[in-house]
Every structure is written in C-alpha cells, then in structure tokens.
Specification:
7 helices, elongated
Length: 624
C-alpha cells in the first residue's frame, strides 16, 4: 500500500501539487485505533517535560573564583542514577539548571559541594514552576554548647525522603576518617588547644568511656553513648588558609532516643588558636539508618587551621559516625574556575564538563511516519533513529561543541528519506565545523563549515538516504520491521559539531533540538515533531494538504485535524511496532496517555508489567 500510494500521489510537479486537495488522494486506509482517539488541542505528544532547578548556596562559601559544580542525576548513582546535567555556581551563590527530563521521572538527585539531595518530583517540590533547593537554611553559625543541657539554636531539618552525598576530592585531609585506628587523645572541651598531629581528640565530657571505636558487622566506626554531661564530641585539627574552601562530610546514624542531636562543625582558628567563627549543620533525631551530611565553607581572613568537630547532644542510645572526608584547597590548572577534580577537561580552559541527553549511557529514539502530508499507518517505524548527545559546556555553562552518537535502526518504508536537525537560535556562521555527515545524493547543498546553505538557523543534515546508513539497497521494504525479512545490523556512527562562539540553552533549546525527516529526497518536504516549526527550506505548499492540518497562525504544525502526529520522540530506546501495526495495538496505554494530554500513563512506552504492551506486535529480533 505504501508503494502504491506514493506512486500515485507524489511524483508530481509543484504546479500539479498546488492544485491538489484532500479529496485528490487515493482511497484512504480504514480507520485505525489511533484515529479513534480524541486528542486534546495543543497536545504535542511530548514524552518529556521542562523543569527548572535552582540551587541556593550559603554565603559561607565564596564562589567568586571557585565556581565548583552541580550535577543532576536521575537517581542516586549508587542505585543506578544516570548523569543528565551539570552546571557551575554563579558569583551570586546560585546555580540554575534548565532540564529536559522524562515526564515519568519520579526524582532527581542533586549533587553539590555543599551537600546533595534526592528530590521527589511531586507538586510540593516546586515553587513558581521550579525546584528550589536552599542549603542556606541548614547552616548554623553558633558555637557548640559548653553548658550542660544547652541546645543549639540551629534550624531543625526535616530528614524525610532526603539522602545526601558530597562531591569531593580524592585527597582526605583528616587521618583515620574511617576510625580503623584505635588511637584517640582527650581534650577538656572543644575550645581546648589542639595540635595538627593527624589524631582525633575526644572531649572529656564524653571521655573514652562514652566515645570510642566500635565494630559492628566487621565495620569500624566512632560510637558515642550517653554521658552525665550529655554533650561532647570528637575533633581533629588540620592546617588551613584564608580563602580555602573546606568541605566536611560524614556518615551518621542514631538509635535509642528521638531527642538526640548530631552536628558537623568547621571551626577556623587563628595563629593564637582562637576560634574565628563557626560553621555547622545540625541533624535532630538522626535516622537509625546511615545518612550522609556535608558542611562546606570558605575560610575567613586570619585562618591558619580549622577544627573538624563531630559534636553530639545525646540523651540515650547511641550516635555513630563513619567515613569522615574533609577536602581542602583545590587545584585549577586551566584557570577556568572549576576544580581539577570536578573538571572533565582540567587542562582546557574552553571546556569544563560534559552533559548528556537523554543521559550518559542510554539512547533516545526518534520514530517517523513518512507519508506526510498523507495519512500513515501509524506504526512509527518508517524511519527509526536512535541518538545520544554528549554536550560539552564551558565554565559559564555555555555550549562549546557536541557529539551525537546515532544509528538508523529501522526503515519500514521504500522511500529514500534523509534526516537532519535545526539548532534554533544559532547562526550558521557560528558553526566552526561538522564532521561525520553521510551524504551520498545530490539534493543537499552545504556551506563550507558543513551547515546546510540557505538556512536562517544552523541546520545539520546527518544523512540524505537512510538506506545508505544501513548498507541496504535503496527501495528495500520493511528493513528491521518485518520478522520474515532479513535483519540488518545497525551501524553506530558519530557526528561532531563545534561552535565558533559558545551559546547557552536559552538560544539553542534542548537536544535533540529540532529534528526532521526529508521525504524521498524532496528537500522541501520536511516531517517534524508535532508543534515544531519547519526550516527555511521547507515548502509551505504541503501545509493543509490531505491529512495535514498545520495552522501556523495558532502554532499548530505537523498534526492532523484530529491532532495526530507524524513523528514521536522518546527519551529511551523505543521498541517500535512491527510493520503495519497501529501503535495503539502494540502499546496499550498510548491511547490513555494521548487522550489525557499526557497526564495519564506517562510511562506508556515502558514495560513495567502486565497491561503495557502486546509483545507479539512489537518488533524483536534475536540479533538485537
């Protein structure tokens, strides 16, 4: 049917095409499942959502020269979370990240030098449309108590559903941070004179009877039990200097009494050993399972040392500390303001770190119907392209270059289709170079830098004939979409785009930018994602013809009168339907998702259990 339809309808001149209307096409196929859906106006079949994450850091950290780094993961890395975004911190002590994330993602893990949090993506997490993480609320500036029964006045922090982890150097400035050495000194109280001798000192309010090495299940730790004084701590003194950023991280837990309080203190001292100020983070009623807390501060003028203090107010039971890590002065070889330990390019001042889409390990998928503006069969396998972007940013969070790993995984049509993408807001002249394009035909014209000529924005054509990408004869039908047809192993390729002047996402938008299919080597016949605008070289004569109901005046593009699309974008590798299978038959929750404008079943493309898929209608080959 596809070949017959195209033979009758599309080998035409522009003059003939302009005279066509919806009634001129061949007898349409029967109404399919997707056509029975009632899709709301304005729904663009997006499987991702845009979120803003704002991280506010306390003023005790000075980011004027050290920009540090914020990382965003899909979950805790220890649980398989994937890195999706990174940013430096501005001189205003804030980092603002604009994220494009899967609509069904339930949490984000935000990792910073000041501590890290697992944020649940519920409506209560958002303020004015974004997620606000304010570390300033957790910082105390009062000294540890020295009078029996006194409680600190720091803000009580709700620990529910929060996990912590710290970005840190490999160099630990404290010794015996895991308490494997059973060798501790004693001091009268935290203000007592100390020496930098790489040794922990226990305050006499606790003494070694109530603070000592403890072994449980083969793991050693510092355990504190209730003493008559009820308060006290364990301290180590290390050298420090003004302007040095010191981070202090420790695991902790508590059992036996809900009134227990634990603190981490950084106390800078001057040449006379006097305390200059106090930086602390307080945890009321620490969890009975291990949590990790972090305090970070820039050392003030006059600092010659800093006291690292594990402080407790214990009413009963135990408080345990373990895995104490303290990091200190950083190295920045390229002078871009990002520590060598946090810089993916420590010797290159023009590059700082990599960010990924959809994430550092996985592929997303673009799936097309290629009969636009005619009606397709809605199997979304006429062209299936997997992709993964690695975007290189500088220390100002601007895009320097990107690497696109991609493969054509299926060609469920006989048309010789091309594929490319537009980078909105980027002038073609701002592209330094493009490498990795696969152009075998003669209908694409390029500028010297590899961008397509005649375009207002930079447009990159990856390939002009999908069959050449799979090393398959042109016109082959059903490549990797029909089980009875031979399987063709996809070829993974890489495209590299370098920019002359770095640009921000405010200009470019988000990967995969504005991708489109070029139908059968007809350059003006572009098929974009629903709601996306065409490039300069599109032919507007196709709009409004046959099944297309594009209405630029209201921002409607590449959708039918019933709002159906010709392309979808998935933030994961898509298991597409077999040839001639309507997507609603293969994916049983697709209809609910579309009719609810994405509110219901945002994970429709997953395989979370019974009721999601009809596996018999999804293409699978043993060589995949």
């Amino acid at each position: 049917m596809k070949k017959l339809f195209l033979t009758l309808a599309f080998p035409i001149t522009l003059l003939t095409f302009n005279a066509c209307n919806k009634n001129d096409q061949p007898e349409p196929d029967p109404i399919t499942g997707i056509e029975r859906l009632s899709v709301p106006n304005g729904f663009n079949f997006e499987t991702t959502t845009l979120k803003t994450v704002k991280v506010v850091f306390p003023e005790i950290i000075n980011f004027s020269t050290n920009k540090s780094r914020v990382n965003v993961y899909t979950d805790l890395p220890s649980l398989g979370g994937k890195l999706i975004a990174s940013s430096t911190v501005g001189s205003d002590n804030e980092a603002v990240l604009e994220l494009q994330i899967p609509s069904n993602l339930q949490q984000l893990f935000i990792e910073t030098v000041a501590g890290s949090k697992l944020v649940q993506l519920s409506s209560s997490s958002f303020k004015e449309g974004g997620i606000v993480i304010d570390f300033t609320l957790e910082i105390g500036l009062v000294p540890p108590p020295v009078v029996d029964g006194m409680k600190a006045s720091s803000l009580i922090i709700d620990e529910s559903n929060i996990h912590y982890k710290s970005i840190g150097s490999l160099v630990n400035l404290v010794t015996n941070g895991d308490f494997t050495q059973d060798n501790f000194g004693v001091i009268a109280d935290w203000p007592s004179p100390m020496t930098s001798d790489q040794k922990w000192y226990i305050t006499s309010t606790l003494g070694t009877n109530h603070a000592k090495q403890h072994t449980q299940a083969g793991e050693k730790m510092m355990r504190i039990t209730s003493s008559p004084a009820r308060y006290g701590g364990v301290a180590q003194l290390i050298p420090a200097s003004p302007g040095a950023l010191i981070t202090f991280t420790s695991d902790m837990r508590s059992t036996g009494n809900s009134n227990n309080i634990a603190w981490l203190f950084l106390i800078p001292r001057d040449a006379s050993g006097n305390s200059i100020t106090y930086f602390s983070i307080q945890t009321n009623n620490p969890s009975n399972t291990w949590i990790t807390k972090t305090i970070a501060a820039t050392m003030p003028a006059g600092t010659v040392s800093v006291q690292v203090l594990l402080w407790s107010h214990i009413f009963g039971g135990t408080i345990d500390y373990d895995n104490v890590i303290v990091t200190g002065p950083v190295s920045d070889s390229d002078g871009d303001g990002v520590d060598n330990d946090l810089d993916d390019y420590p010797d290159d001042s023009e590059r700082a770190f990599n960010v990924y889409y959809p994430n550092e390990d996985d592929f997303g998928t673009l799936a097309f119907e290629d009969l636009w503006p005619g009606k397709g069969d809605y199997d979304f396998n006429d062209l299936v392209v997997d992709y993964r972007f690695k975007q290189v940013l500088n220390s100002n969070n601007a895009l320097v270059e990107f690497f696109l790993d991609y493969q054509v995984r299926a060609i469920g049509a006989s048309l010789e289709n091309g594929f490319g993408f537009e980078i909105p807001g980027v002038d073609p002249s701002n592209v330094k170079s493009i490498t990795g394009q696969q152009l075998t035909e003669s209908y694409i014209s390029l500028n010297g830098n590899g961008t397509e000529s005649g375009q207002e924005n930079a447009v990159v054509i990856l390939f002009d004939n999908a069959f050449s990408m799979m090393e398959t004869p042109s016109g082959s039908f059903g490549v990797n979409t029909m089980l009875e047809a031979p399987y063709v192993t996809p070829v993974l390729r890489q495209l590299v785009v370098q920019l002359e002047t770095p640009v921000t996402t405010q200009l470019t938008g988000f990967a995969p930018y504005n991708p489109f299919l070029i139908v059968d080597k007809t350059r003006g016949r572009e098929v974009h994602l629903p709601g996306k605008t065409p490039t300069t070289l599109h032919d507007p004569a196709y709009f409004g013809q046959w099944f297309d109901n594009t209405i630029p005046a209201i921002g409607k593009y590449y959708q039918s009168a019933s709002n159906l699309p010709w392309a979808i974008n998935l933030p994961t590798q898509f298991d597409y339907p077999v040839e001639k299978t309507d997507i609603t038959a293969a994916y049983l929750k697709f209809g609910s998702w579309a009719e609810s404008a994405g509110q219901n079943d945002p994970d429709w493309y997953s395989n979370e259990g019974a009721g999601y898929r009809n596996e018999a209608l999804i293409y699978k080959h043993e060589d995949q």
